[in-house]
Amino acid sequence: MPRARPRIRFEMPPESDPPTAPSEQGGSDMSPARHPIHFGFMATVGVGFALLLYFVLINVGALLAWIAAALFIALGLDPIVRWLGRKGLPRPAGVIIVVLILAGLVAAFISTLIPTIVNQTTQIVANAPRYVDDFLNSAFFQSVDEQFQVRERIDVELAKFFANSENVTGIFGGVLGVGSAVLQGAFGALIVLVLTLYFLASLPALKIWAYRLAPRSRRQQVQRLSEEISSSVGSYVIGQACVALMNAAVAFIAMSIAQVPFTTLLTFVVALLAFIPLIGAVIAGVLVSLVALTVSWQTAALFAVIYFAYLQIEAYFVSPRVMQRAVAVPGAVAVIAVIAGGSLLGVLGALMAIPVAASVMLLLKDVFIVRQDRA
């Protein structure tokens, strides 16, 4: 029998695994998002945009401050317009009435108080040398001068100052700087007035447009928070204006009783400073007391007793009742906010500090704290 031929089996080699990515093999990930060149380019672009934003903020910072002031004033006048609307008056008519009243107050102020303020300011400048001489010839200064030779040191320093030509040139440049600052302030006031009218007239449309930027699921919550914040800011502005007017009225009465000179000018200064919360009224009282010292210490003491006694009444009885519907900010937070706002934007920042702090506290309470409670 023939021998059986051996069978040869052909086996296919096992399929090799697909090549793994470099990251799976332990190598570095060279994807475009993590490529060193790509990362360096994107970092450079980010730094460039940050520098551009800083440059824009530095050069248009005054314009941003004017816009913030106009929006702040518009939010303060909006409750009056809405109150007129609840009485059945259309919003355009309410805006016109509020604007006419504001323009009438400004015109009355310019026509009546500005000439008196300019006249009294001129008198202060003209009498400044006499005030200095009276102080230098007073018994208090003479006793101090005998111990420390203050007048001799002042004369030496003034001689050194005026001997340097750069200092004289700096004085001339400072005068020009004051003039340009006055012109810039007048232009800024005009811009703020125009923007205030625009914001006041189109505030509902601006709110609707801003609400559309929020996601649809959060739009109702955003609208509720925005309305509450705008209402509190408006109430705060009106309340602070009432407190400032009462403060100025009390200061005028106290200065009339104590017979402090330049009453009209100082009353205007007190009204302006009283708009600054917490510290404005105190600064105004100290300033008027220093002016009253030019008459006698009895005049300064009488004014200080009346005015600072009213400040205690204002702090415990007037301000809480006027501000009860506006904002509720703890004392420590209010002080920190006023200092921070004054450091960033000056007087405007100090005025806006407390409403901004109240808005931030409202957002923290309504968004983060409520969310944590639900979690």
From TrEMBL:
Lineage, broadest ranks: Bacteria, Bacillati, Actinomycetota, Actinomycetes, Micrococcales
InterPro entries according to UniProt: AI-2E-like (IPR002549)
Descriptive protein name: AI-2E family transporter
Keyword vocabulary terms for this entry: Cell membrane, Membrane, Transmembrane, Transmembrane helix, Transport
Membership in a protein family: Belongs to the autoinducer-2 exporter (AI-2E) (TC 2.A.86) family.
Positions of transmembrane segments: 37-57, 63-81, 93-114, 186-212, 233-258, 264-293, 300-319, 331-364
Stretches assigned to coiled coil: none
Subcellular location: Cell membrane
Membrane topology annotation: Multi-pass membrane protein
Renumbered residue ranges of the record's region Disordered: 1-30
The keyword Cell membrane is annotated on this UniProt entry: yes
Pfam families: AI-2E_transport (PF01594)
